[in-house]
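Design a sequence for this backbone.
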């Protein structure tokens, strides 16, 4: 049984299946993309500028851990699930300032 150098998966008739590894260029780029996804806010800045608190109509600030939107005036915290802000007053929690 022959193993290809890039994939470490048995190859049949010299047809290698390529899986990105840390040593490959594609693997390095893939890991950089994953790091960018975890470091950047999931909600676009344009969307954050137009979103307001449904209860008091004031601005919201993005919080990363846990991912949520907090009202600057009434201190309601709206959760973000699967990159979608849940802007329902009854789903929000109120934090003390």
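Sequence:
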């Amino acid at each position: 049984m022959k193993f290809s150098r890039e994939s470490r998966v048995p190859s049949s008739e010299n047809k290698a299946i390529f899986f990105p590894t840390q040593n490959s260029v594609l693997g390095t780029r893939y890991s950089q993309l994953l790091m960018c996804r975890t470091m950047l806010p999931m909600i676009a800045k344009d969307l954050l500028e137009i979103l307001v608190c449904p209860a008091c109509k004031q601005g919201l600030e993005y919080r990363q851990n846990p991912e949520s939107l907090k009202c600057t005036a009434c201190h309601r915290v709206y959760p973000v699930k699967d990159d979608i802000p849940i802007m329902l007053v009854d789903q929000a929690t109120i934090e003390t300032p």
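Residues 35-39 have pLDDT under 50 and may be disordered.
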